[in-house]
Design goal:
By secondary structure, this protein is α+β, with helices and mostly antiparallel strands. Helix content is 57%, strand content 19%. Strand 1 and strand 2 form a beta hairpin. The protein is globular.
Length: 117
């Protein structure tokens, strides 16, 4: 399958998962989740969906709950996206936001040190 089609399907899955969590979920924790992206394997058998949450302390609990709800979310996606085989979904916390914030803090502290000199 072409790389462009796989990226399009991954983007569509991320969009639909976000819509499902925001509009159809009754769990308050899911309302605090932002879907940041998705990766799909070449054979469309697995999809890894990345998320962040407003309250970072609850990320492990939210990840566990999302993975428990993955079957329902997969069923909903199968009804919304036209693919022959709907991928099995797993959720992972997106560490890139925290990593970026950490780099920003380091740069700011270096900038502050240079201003003092």
């Amino acid at each position: 399958m072409s790389e462009i089609k796989i990226k399009r399907i991954a983007s569509q899955i991320a969009k639909e998962v976000s819509d499902i969590l925001q509009n159809e979920s009754r769990d308050y924790n899911f309302k605090t989740v932002t879907i940041t992206g998705a990766d799909v394997t070449n054979d469309l058998s697995f999809a890894k969906v990345y998320f962040t949450a407003i309250n970072d302390e609850d990320k492990d609990i939210i990840k566990k709950e999302l993975n428990e709800a993955a079957g329902y979310i997969r069923k909903e996606i199968a009804e919304r996206i036209e693919v022959r085989h709907t991928p099995k979904i797993t959720f992972e916390y997106d560490e890139s936001i925290e990593y970026g914030n950490n780099i920003e803090r380091i740069i700011q502290s270096l900038h502050d040190e240079n201003e003092e000199v």
